[in-house]
Design goal:
Blueprint: H1 2-9, H2 14-27, E1 35-40, E2 45-48, H3 50-56, H4 66-69, H5 73-86, E3 91-98, E4 106-117, E5 123-132, H6 134-148, H7 155-166, E6 171-179, E7 184-192, E8 203-205, H8 208-215, E9 219-223, H9 224-229, H10 240-247, E10 252-260, E11 267-276, H11 284-292, H12 295-323, H13 327-342, E12 346-353, E13 358-367, E14 373-375, E15 384-386, H14 390-398, E16 402-404, E17 424-431, E18 438-446, H15 454-486, E19 491-494, E20 500-503, H16 505-511, H17 515-518, H18 531-538, E21 545-551, H19 556-559, H20 570-583, H21 599-605, E22 607-615, E23 623-629, H22 630-673, H23 677-704, H24 708-711, E24 718-721, H25 722-731, H26 735-738, E25 741-745, E26 751-754, H27 756-773, E27 780-786, E28 790-797, H28 811-822, H29 826-832, E29 836-841, E30 847-854
Parallel strand pairs: 25-27
Antiparallel strand pairs: 1-2, 1-5, 3-4, 4-5, 6-7, 6-11, 7-8, 9-10, 10-11, 12-13, 12-18, 13-14, 13-15, 16-17, 17-18, 19-20, 19-23, 21-22, 22-23, 24-26, 27-28, 28-30, 29-30
Helix pairs in contact: 6-7, 6-12, 12-13, 18-20, 22-23, 23-25, 27-29
């Protein structure tokens, strides 16, 4: 009985063990952040501190059930550890617990188990210390995501989802920061969950107080509503982004600075902010966890990924620019690339047109819904503005970029006709190597206020400097291409083996083939006698003047010629070209293009051209051939000879015709002075002959007027009867024209010292102008007035008012303008006569031309 009583009295109880820990609970466990749970060997919870209740998701120790907390695989671990405690063993293990209030929420913990014994050394229970591994798990998860997604765009969204399980938030923002000695600007580059920003302020420059607030601390948690309603942040209350976050009913915020570098090189590159609709959502414990997580690496990797993507797009832009062959394509390429590099809404390229003193839009691109660039459909020069007007004019004047946060506050802003709402604008000049003036302007506009930062200005300026060389090269290439394509001489570019690389339109016309048909073909197959060209391949000919050759056009020699790359020797190619050329002569009589106007004989012998050659510069290798068609040259020589001959013929006929007409005029006067009917009839016959001779004389005059070079040269003056010359000129007119002319003279037989040919050119040109301008009812008056020293010939008529160019000229100047339009050489021709030409406008609106000639003093 005593033994039994003794055993019963010594039986261990959990109450005794609890009494042993009573003092320890109150002193240490209740205030500990480590969860502490005391249980008996039947897994009944005897004690749990506040941290354990929070970890388990219950409010009181009586609600804590270990079978629910250790669910699934964790229950098996608990059974094994219970056996270890019975054997007086210490326990150290990791397990994932399930919260009782939320079965979907699990907590990873590291447990240290201590056996509890009574005074007799019997194990009566267990004391467990639960250290949460969630922070470590989250740190490892964030680090693993950073390593596995460092080069991907979904890194920050995955990190945000991982954070949301431990640090719940309703909105997470990452703002990129541009910091220097004078300014601190920030832009929201990431938000989660994604939402559409209602035209927010993209970039905001902090004032001194706001900057001091940000630089004075590395992070913190705040009552969001209170902070945004008090200085220094209350100034941002009216910004669209602040209004939108206020509409989201955000109450709490927690932020952390993201830096790069160490020591003096450390600088802020971003700010990460968590916002919650729950007031007091974050505390010291959350801030400590937020600061311990490796978020700097994740944000930096994301920003670096964006930079690398921008660099890749920029490199692709340079490659595409190098492929551009014309400046219009280069401008389109640059505008599209800038939209994709920076994600801007609208980019335009403007060219400075110095000839028009205007700034002309040449290309434009817009950002599509998928982020790619879309052509806006603008054409070259569809919009132009003055060279000194607007924001673009300021760029031209200063040669400096212009960043306008709000164009509505800029008095020089000019609204484009596109009708789009523009609030901010960035314009950066492109200056070529001469550095004297702006050649192009990159203009970016956006419907947001302050859409561009100082970093954008720096980046776009760097790009403008880098593309300036390419744009200058393409501009020069465009000019050269236009010159080559519009020159009348055929130009052929070949490689070192005389395979055609490029031809201009004149060469296509010369050979009668399209560019695609010519490119890649051997130049030797296009000529009937290619020996001088074959000598280039042999190295026996290095001169620039190849000489005269004949072209094969649309013959068997071209159609059956060996293609480029064939193993045909130069000698064989030369022989085949020569032979086929002679054989195709009989069948190529119906040529086209340049050969169609030369007759069958020219086509049968081949089109003659004179070939000159230039080497490509540097080590490019190849030749440029200029094939000048000899037919227009020969024809121009013939025409020049014919013009000179015609002029000389007209000059040589003036004297005998004038002498004959003067002699006939004397006989005419004698015949009309006689009263005999026979003499009167003879006078009428002589008058008819004189009219016919006058027509012949003036026909030769008009023929001579085709030679500009010959007709302005000074001639030997001779005695000319001016009244007779005018009578002959009027006799050569048509009947309708003669009715419009009234010739008045005070005396007959007025002789002057002048050149026959040039006199007729002047008088006939002015008379022709007045007759063309005169309506049906108008009269042209010719008045001959001799003086002691000079003889004046006045030609009076009405010229069209339109020739006076409105009110820009005074009356005499208008007449001079009409004179210059009629014949620019008249004044010079009159000086050759030692005379003068004056023009004036009379009060009644008529124009009067006054010709003065030196009068002949003595006869003989």
């Amino acid at each position: 009985m005593d033994d039994v009583g003794k055993d019963a009295g010594q039986e261990p109880t959990s109450a005794a063990a609890a009494a042993m820990l009573g003092q320890m609970k109150r002193a240490v466990f209740d205030g500990s952040r480590i969860a502490v749970i005391q249980r008996d060997l039947a897994n009944n919870v005897l004690y749990a501190n506040a941290a354990a209740l929070t970890m388990s998701g219950v409010g009181h120790v009586d609600q804590l059930r270990l079978d629910r907390l250790f669910a699934g695989e964790a229950g098996r671990v608990l059974d094994e550890e219970t056996r270890g405690r019975r054997n007086r063993e210490l326990g150290a293990y990791r397990v994932t617990l399930t919260c009782q209030d939320d079965p979907g929420r699990q907590v990873a913990v590291e447990v240290t188990g201590l056996p509890l014994m009574d005074d007799h050394g019997t194990v009566v229970g267990s004391l467990g210390f639960f250290r949460s591994l969630q922070h470590q798990v989250l740190t490892d998860q964030v680090r693993a995501l950073t390593l596995s997604h460092a080069g991907r765009a979904d890194l920050l969204p995955l990190v945000a989802e991982a954070l949301r399980r431990e640090l719940p938030f309703d909105l997470m923002l990452v703002s990129r920061v541009v910091e220097d000695d004078s300014a601190w600007e920030s832009e929201i580059v990431f938000n989660h969950p994604p939402f559409r920003q209602d035209v927010p302020t993209a970039w905001y420059e902090l004032n001194a107080a706001q900057r001091a607030f940000m630089e004075g601390q590395c992070g913190g948690f705040h009552d969001f509503e209170t902070v945004m309603s008090q200085p220094p942040w209350s100034e941002m209350g009216e910004e669209p982004m602040s209004r939108q976050m206020h509409a989201m009913d955000l109450k709490s915020s927690m932020w952390r600075r993201i830096t790069r570098g160490e020591g003096e090189d450390e600088r802020t590159v971003a700010i990460m902010t968590l916002l919650s609709r729950k007031r007091g959502a974050y505390g010291e414990h959350d801030l400590a966890l937020f600061n311990q997580l490796p978020l700097i690496e994740a944000v930096l990797c994301s920003l670096d990924h964006d930079e690398r993507e921008r660099d890749r797009r920029q490199l692709r832009m340079f490659r595409e620019l190098n492929r551009c062959a014309d400046i219009q394509g280069a401008c389109r390429c640059l505008s599209d690339a800038l939209v994709e590099i920076f994600g801007w809404q609208h980019v335009s390229l403007f060219r400075i047109d110095s000839a028009r003193d205007a700034i002309v839009r040449v290309a434009s691109a817009r950002r599509g819904e998928d982020g790619s660039a879309m052509d806006t459909g603008v054409s070259w020069g569809d919009y132009a503005q003055g060279l000194c007007q607007g924001i673009l004019g300021r760029v031209v004047r200063t040669l400096q970029p212009q960043k306008i946060p709000d164009v509505t506050r800029d008095p020089e802003y000019l609204r484009t006709p596109d009708g789009e709402p523009i609030r901010s604008e960035l314009a950066v000049p492109i200056v070529f190597s001469d550095s004297e003036r702006v050649r192009f302007i990159v203009n970016v506009d956006d419907p947001r206020v302050s859409a561009f930062s100082r970093e954008h200005v720096r980046q776009l300026t760097d790009i403008a400097h880098e593309v300036a060389g390419a744009m200058e090269r393409i501009s020069d290439l465009t000019l050269m291409t236009e010159c080559v394509n519009n020159v009348s001489d055929p130009i052929i570019a070949t490689d070192a083996k005389l395979r055609i690389r490029r031809v201009n339109p004149a060469a296509e016309t010369l050979f009668g083939l399209t560019r695609k048909a010519l490119e890649g073909r051997s130049l030797l197959t296009l000529f009937q006698n290619p020996e001088p060209l074959a000598a280039l391949l042999d190295g026996t000919e290095a001169g620039d003047r190849i000489g005269e050759m004949r072209v094969c056009r649309r013959g068997t020699a071209i159609d059956e010629a060996p293609q480029a790359g064939s193993d045909v020797s130069p000698a064989a190619a030369a022989g085949s070209g020569s032979g086929s050329g002679s054989g195709s002569g009989s069948g190529s009589g119906s040529g086209s293009g340049l050969g169609s106007g030369s007759g069958s004989g020219a086509d049968a012998g081949g089109l003659p051209v004179f070939i000159t050659r230039r080497d490509f510069p540097g080590q490019l290798g190849g030749h440029v051939f200029i094939a000048r068609d000899l037919r227009p040259i020969r024809r121009s020589v013939q025409l020049e000879f014919l013009e000179e001959t015609a002029y000389e013929l007209a000059v040589e006929t003036q004297a005998p015709l004038g002498m004959a007409m003067s002699c006939l005029e004397d006989q005419l006067e004698a015949a009309f002075s006689s009263e005999a009917a026979r003499e009167q009839a003879r006078g009428r016959e002589l008058q008819t002959v004189l009219r016919q001779l006058g027509r012949v004389k003036h026909a030769f005059t008009r023929l001579a007027m085709y030679n500009r070079e010959a007709r302005v040269s000074a001639r030997v003056a001779s005695t000319i009867r001016l009244d007779g010359e005018i009578d002959a000129l009027l006799a050569s007119l048509a009947a309708s024209e003669r009715r419009k002319v009234v010739f008045e003279t005070a005396v007959r037989k007025v002789e002057v010292e002048a050149d026959h040919m040039q006199l007729h050119i002047v008088v006939e040109s002015l008379l022709s102008v007045l007759l063309r301008a005169a309506p049906e009812t108008a009269i042209v008056r010719l008045t001959l007035v001799p003086d002691d020293e000079l003889v004046f010939l006045r030609l009076r008529g009405r010229l069209p008012p339109a020739r006076r160019h409105g009110e820009r000229f005074a009356a005499p100047e208008a007449a001079q303008a009409d004179l210059r339009l009629a014949n620019p050489l008249l004044c010079k021709l009159m000086k050759n006569q030692s005379g003068a030409l004056k023009a004036s406008v009379l009060p009644d609106g008529d124009t009067e031309f006054v010709l003065s000639f030196p009068r002949r003093r003595a006869h003989g």
